[in-house]
Amino acid sequence: MFKNIYNWIDERLDITPLWRDVADHEVPEHVNPAHHFSAFVYCFGGLTFFITVIQILSGMFLTMYYVPDIVHAYASVDYLQHQIPFGNIVRGMHHFGASLVIVMMFLHTLRVFFTGSYKAPREMNWVVGMLIFFIMLGLGFTGYLLPWDNKAYYATKVGVEIAASVPIIGEYIAKILYGGDIVGARTLTTFFAVHVFFLPGALIAMLAAHFIMIRKQGISGPL
Amino acid sequence: MSNHEQHDSEHQPIQRKDMSRRQFLSYTLGGTTAFMVGGAVLPMVRFAVDPLLAKGSESTLVKVLDESKVTTEPQEVRFKVHQVDAWYESETEKVAWISKDASNNVFALSPICKHLGCTVFWNTHGKSEYDCPCHDARYSKDGKNLAVANSPLDEYEVVVKDGVVYLGGIIPNTRA
After folding, report:
1. DSSP 8-state assignment for residue A31
2. B66-118: per-residue pLDDT in tens?
3. A–B: how many Cβ contacts below 8 A?
4. For B49-119, where are the alpha helices, taking DSSP H only?
5. A85 vs B44: CB contact, 8 Å cut-off?
6. How far is CA B64 from CA B23, B76, B96, B106, B110, in A?
7. What pLDDT is recorded for position B1?
8. Which residue of A has its CA nearest to B43?
9. Which residues of chain A have pLDDT under 50?
10. Which of A21, A157, B74, B116 counts the highest number of beta carbons within 10 A?
11. What's chain B's Rg over C-alpha atoms?
């Protein structure tokens, strides 16, 4: 039945080349762990993406219950984690996935560095990768505040104080991040907006650029 | 690829209804993928559909007024119930119209119109009926739907103990 539906659409829109172009491509021998087991290091980029997808999905579901308000944020997180079935799993995916995505991204960066894959003609992809790195750190920093517990509060305070130590513009950065003078209601809504809309939007755009470039240029050769 | 096929045809004339190596691999990979996707997605789906599966909150009986004050003419009573709405807990006000029927039974109607949920009032047009201001639905004193609405007004569960009327949860109308 699915085959018939697929064929019906394909006859009209010729969608086969679309997904072929995405899914069907050569995996060189030197990046295939079936040939050389040490090639597993080439999996870290894909794993980073896999966890990123999980982060986006679990984050979308978490916002069904979360409120970014200083009075109710903690209560809503407590509720979704302890009262909703599988709440601890969905929040756990987002919580532990956040750490894991940083680890995987770091390993991916190391692999790219030590295989020299950042060299010409792939310098732009390295730069985009670095931008993704900082977007991820930003996601981690802004997400950390959202449960509005003590750890969140002080981590944000310390983080913004560090940002405030930048010469000349530091205090303005701090003002923007705080949304005022204290870690409070406006800090929480600002961080929520940045965490849920601005950074994920930027992340998806950067990931698209990252993947288009790697497909265009191909995987770098063996050492 | 073509090399592979030649290899197969040379060594194994396929007669048994064996699964091909490719088919086995795609089933295995597909099954593993489905398992992993399911493991990731099912908790999130269960998390999201919780409103469908959650048990409704149970109602408690609330003291509203003395039985001696209930007359055959419906009167509006307001009472507070403790409401737990996820992470919000509050005292919320509810309204009931209490009266006695011909055989002196106390009953209480919910003024939520069964048409589209507005609030009805007793006798606003002087016809001894419940009238809805939104779409002119009308109900008898027993809550029977006379116009517009498709079903009678709901009742509150009523308990009379020691001369005091207590109201509980909403139940379907038993009188009309």
Report:
1. G
2. 988 899 899 999 999 988 888 998 999 999 999 998 888 999 999 999 999 99
3. 40
4. 50-53
5. no
6. 71, 11, 10, 12, 14
7. 43
8. A86
9. none
10. B74
11. 31
Tokens describing residue A1:
């039945």
- The ipTM assigned to this model is 0.82
- Name the token pair of B122: 């007793």
d(CA A117, CA A219): 8
Contact state of B47 with A64 under an 8 Å Cβ cutoff: yes
List pLDDT tens digits, range B112-134.
999 999 999 999 888 899 999 99
Q: Tell me the three state secondary structure of residue A119.
A: coil
* Amino acid letter, residue B176: A
The residues pairing with B109 across neighbouring beta strands, listed in sequence order, are B97, B155
Asked if residue B47 lies in contact with residue A90, where contact means CB atoms within 8 angstroms, the answer is yes
Whether residue A79 lies within 8 A of chain B, CB to CB, comes out as yes
Chain B contact probe: residue of A57, A86, A88, A148 with most B CBs at under 10 A: A86
B56: left (phi over 0), alpha (psi -120 to 50) or beta: beta
**d(CA A70, nearest CA chain B) in Å:** 13
What pLDDT is recorded for position B95? 94
List % helix, strand, coil for chain A (3-state, nearest 5).
Answer: 75, 0, 25
> For residues B131-170, b (16+ Cβ closer than 10 Å) or e, as one string?
bbeeeebbbebbbbbeebbeebbbbbebeeeeeebbbbee
Cα gap A68→A76, rounded to integer Å: 9
Cβ distance B86 to A76 less than 8 Å, yes or no, reads yes
> What is the side-by-side order of every strand in the sheet holding B88-100?
B62-66, B164-171, B155-161, B106-109, B88-100, B75-85
Q: Is B164 on the interface with A (CB under 8 A)?
A: no
